[in-house]
Structure formats: structure tokens, C-alpha cells
Amino acid sequence: MSSVLARARLQLVHLTTKSKPQATPAQSESTMSSGKGTITDWVKPGDTSGEFKRQVSSFRNWISSDPNAEFPAEKGRYHLYVSYACPWAHRTLIVRKLKGLEEIIPFTSVHWHMAEKGWRFATADEQVPGENVTPDPLHPNNTHLRDLYFSANPNYEGRFTVPTLWDKKKQTIVNNESSEIIRMFYTAFDDILPEQYKNVVLYPDGLKDKIEEVNKWTYDDINNGVYKSGFATTQEAYERNVEQLFKSLDRTEAILAESASRGPFYFGAQLTEADVRLYTTIVRFDPVYVQHFKCNIKDIRSGYPHLHRWLRHLYWTIPAFGETTQFEHIKKHYTKSHKQINPFGITPVGPVPDILKEEEEVGAVKK
């Protein structure tokens, strides 16, 4: 095979044909359907179903508190690559901050723009909002996230997704599955954390069954539902998915209405994984998903009072949520990277503001 053909082969994207709902695969929005196509094709060209199908994560190793493990918990050994735009990567930033892992696991955010080569790193001369939006600090010659993937596996043929958890000692990717990365963060580093962070429990024994039950339909219908609606290429696929999305938003609203008397979180008094996993979709809903993904049966700020109250409480009162939310990345990434949906890359001005203060309401709600 010639070097030109070899390079071309590496640039093709071959994808797994079906995700596994029970594993709740959590990829970045840079994930496409099965089969061949460019990196900006979200549904396989020629797929008459019009359905967006999410790829299963490829790297699935775990960091362990056992010092003899293949990937033991050590300060400074691991580096987290994220995008502020991506809801799946956003989960890991929230949990990293909630668990006090800032000095243990440094991170780098890619630029908000994603094109044919996938996520790229910001250049040294670019001024992009958000902490650590820089060139790759570990590999100065890397221009794109894909460079990490080919470094870990020269024959890699999947999507180049965030979050990506990198091991500096072994020079490889540990894991690129957000639902697993956040659970590693829950406990794996507790032996080297101050007591106050050891006591942050986001997956409590008494709520595990409820969290797992909620995770399944929240992932299928809401977290991934906005993508299945927005990337659909047939009217039938769009309507089927958007209607299910709003049925499940209605279901979430009812749960939050019932739990409100016990506390401000999903299950009332205790912040849990359910809050983290839902938040990253809901905070993007009005600024992006309503218009860009045609999820416009209702918006959050005027159509879901309990969801809206819950969202604003997390954003304005818990720094791990508000300080990791970067609306410029969110709005520009979707509208300027998804050329199939928005070929001219025009970013809508509204809604204004991106999120309302806790005491503010839109006019319709005030009346």
C-alpha cells in the first residue's frame, strides 16, 4: 500500500453499527452513524432510516485505588482532554471540580470548532474564553485530538471524541467513555483527597437503583434524544425522536415537582449523578437545541418551571456547574461546526440572556 493510500485509510471513519443502551455510551457530539462518511456526516450517506446512531466508546480501561493496578490512582499521572461545548465532556469537568481533583488531574480544552479532522487544539495566538483552552501542553506537535488517538493506536478507525483521559506514564488513552470516567472520579482518588472531598458521594448506595433506572431513559430520550432529533435526515425520524424527547422532559418535570419539597436536587436533598448527567443537556437546551436541533415544542425557561428552577439553582449556587459552563463554546461549536444543519454557520443572537438569574422569569411566566 502506498503512503498516500495509507494516510487516506487512516482518515476514513468506520463506525460501530449499533450502540448498547444499557452501557449508556457517552461520546462527544463529534460522533456519527455507522459506515463510511466524512467526520461531519452525522447520518450515514444513503441511510434511508434518517436515524442518528451513536458510536460505542473504544477505550474502556479503569483507574483504580489499588497501587498495583495497571492504571493506579496517582497525582499528576493523568491528563483530561475535554471540550467546553460537549455535554458528555462537561460531565467530567463538573465531577472533577465537585471531587476536588483540580490539583490531581489537570485538563486541556480543545477549541470549540470541529471540522473534517475533528476537534482541534487552540493555537498560541488565539484568545478563546475558558480555562486551559490552549495548545496541547503534553505534545507540542499535536494540532488535533486525533493525534492522541493515533499515538495510542496507529490503526485507530473510530471517532476522535472527548472526554479523553490520557496516561502520561504509559503514553496511552485510558478511557474515552464519560459515564465511566465520572465514576472513576467518584472514588478512585479518595485515598489522596482531603476529607471534605472524600465525603462528596454522587452515587450513594441508597439511590443506586433509582439512578440507574433514571439514567437509561434520560440518556436514550433526553441526552441522546436531542441529537437523534437534530441529526435526523427524514421527517419521520425527527418527529418520532422529538416527540419522545418532550415526553421524557415532561416526565422529568413531574419528578422535580414531586421532589421539590425535599430539596433542590433531582432526588431532593442530595446532589447525585442524576443531576450531573441531566444538567449538561438542559443548560444547552434553550441556547442551542431549541433552534439548532429543532427541539422547539417548548423551551425550558417558559415551558418547564421546575426544570428551570432546578437548572438555575445548580448554575448559580454550585461553582462546579456554573464555572464549567461556557456558552460561547456551546453556541459557536454547534452552529459553526454542523455544516449539514447550518451550512452558513450563522450563530443566533438569542436567547438573551443565555441563562436567567434565579429570581428572573420570562414575561410569559411572570404573567
Automatic annotation (TrEMBL):
Its EC number is 1.8.5.1, 2.5.1.18. The active site is at C86 (nucleophile), Y227 (proton donor/acceptor). SUPFAM superfamilies: GST C-terminal domain-like (SSF47616), Thioredoxin-like (SSF52833). Residues 17-47 are annotated as: Disordered. It comes from the Eukaryota. One of its GO terms (molecular function) is glutathione dehydrogenase (ascorbate) activity. Residues 17-37 have a biased composition (Polar residues). Glutathione binds at W119, R159, F160, T161, V162, E177, S178. Residues 193-334 form the GST C-terminal domain. Active as '1-Cys' thiol transferase against beta-hydroxyethyl disulfide (HED), as dehydroascorbate reductase and as dimethylarsinic acid reductase, while not active against the standard GST substrate 1-chloro-2,4-dinitrobenzene (CDNB). May be involved in cell wall organization and biogenesis. This is Glutathione S-transferase omega-like 2. It comes from Cladophialophora immunda.
